[in-house]
Amino acid sequence: MDATEFRREGREMVDFISDYLENIGDRLPMPNVLPGYLKEMIPDEAPTDAEPWDTIKNDIERVIMPGVTHWHSPHFHAYFPTGNSYPAILGDMLSDAIGCIGFSWASSPACTELEISMMDWLAKMLNLPKQFLFSEEGNGGGIIQGTASEATLVALLSARTTMINKLKIENPNLTQGQILDKLIAYTSDESHSSVERAALIGMVQIRALPSDENGSLRGTVLERSIQQDKEKGLIPFFLCSTLGTTSTCSFDNLSELGPLCDQHNIWMHVDAAYAGSAFICPEFRQPLNGIEHSMSFNFNPHKWLRVNFDCSAMWVKDRNLVSGAFELHPLYLKHENQGNCMPDYRHWQIPLGRRFRSLKLWFVLRMFGVKGLQEQIRKDVSLAQQFKLLVESDHRFEIIRKVTLGLVCFRLKGSNELNEMLLKKINNDRRIHLVPSKIKETYFLRFAVCASSTQASDVNYAWSVIKEICDNM
């Protein structure tokens, strides 16, 4: 494919993408295929001779689309949103064309410097403490990670290295293994499974602490656990608190947890993967109170801020503590401007290579503006409240916990098995898609406002499907 053909086929692909997104509501959100479906539709080996683009293009609908879960369908209400917009797609197109691997400033200065600015833009939109900004005095700054899971792992490993270095200075006779055996991290029993996975990778113990009746981890529980573990000779070093849990979008109490972490020299990382986007709206920012006590903070613009995956924003108060956990200097990666005010982001992350992800963030923030993104979030929150009222209007159903942001947790009054049957029938019907969760042995369904195109009519449609299926059970 030469430039001339690319121009022609590129225009056709843009048309295809536009048609797909504009008419996505006409497709069932869940595919109707069985595992292994695709293997039967393509050859066992790559072609020896080149194939024409028209043949490949025709196979998109024949081979790929039957097995696609349409996350951007207004009838997709599972998990949490995944961001999408035309400006973000354009940003990814340009990033793919430039094709740089921005592991250092020298490897592509614009890649690093735009990311620095975009992370400061986002921090100011959230009204984060100035300690997290590149543009302020201090060692703070932000980086675009791939996922919130990566951010949690980076934070935990940075905290681990910081504590090991501190203890070895205090007692040079201690080995790294002796210290590792005593390190213990904390999180809530409702935090994401990626926190426990980070501890497994980091080879440290972790305790899942019980949350209260609202799903919030409170200071009294953390303080009691710290004292118990210190009496056992363990070394508390890390807390991952959550703002917007996956199951019910509940919030840990940072104002209580933060001062305890300061007191006991514990690195507090705040995971706000989904809910963080809502903090650009002043009326939804209250759970962020206490963020000034955290050492690191993360949320995913690729969930609810119209930016395509992957774009996970992470800030740290002291970038030296992060880079200190990962920093290596092979000769082939050194450059003459190393350390001259610009970060080499390879020291802040797990992989070496990185894409020019800040381009799509730049395009989105400029083309929507803060007001446009706030309107999207407020609209989705209002749709969740609409669904809540529909659930409450039917005596057969009940709401689980407080409805927060764009998520409604609900269930049929009755047994877990009854609700499992309802969910199975809903998803087998395929007109809408939901997923379940379970809190303290109570099984329930989650209704999330996911697609940016979701409107009031789509919420009414989803409820009509649920009622119809329930009526026929």
Q: What is the C-alpha radius of gyration, as a whole number of Å? A: 24 Å
Alpha-beta classification: alpha/beta
Average of pLDDT = 93
Portion in beta strands: 5-15%
Strand order of the largest sheet: 1-7-6-5-4-2-3
Report what the structure shows.
The strands form two sheets. A seven-stranded mixed sheet has the order 1-7-6-5-4-2-3, with helices on both faces. α5 (148-170) packs across α7, α8 (219-231) packs parallel to α9 (254-263) and α12 crosses α14 (456-471). With 473 residues, the protein is an alpha/beta fold. 42% of the residues lie in helices and 12% in strands. The radius of gyration is 24 Å and the shape is globular. It has helices at 3-22, 53-64, 86-98, 109-126, 148-170, 176-180, 193-202, 219-231, 254-263, 301-304, 319-326, 358-392, 416-429, 456-471, and strands spanning 141-145, 183-188, 205-209, 235-242, 267-271, 296-299, 312-316, 397-399, 407-412, 435-439, 442-448.
Short description:
This protein is α/β, with parallel strands linked by helices and 473 residues long.
Which helices and strands appear, and what pairs or packs with what?
Blueprint: H1 3-22, H2 53-64, H3 86-98, H4 109-126, E1 141-145, H5 148-170, H6 176-180, E2 183-188, H7 193-202, E3 205-209, H8 219-231, E4 235-242, H9 254-263, E5 267-271, E6 296-299, H10 301-304, E7 312-316, H11 319-326, H12 358-392, E8 397-399, E9 407-412, H13 416-429, E10 435-439, E11 442-448, H14 456-471
Helix pairs in contact: 3-12, 4-12, 5-7, 5-11, 8-9, 12-14
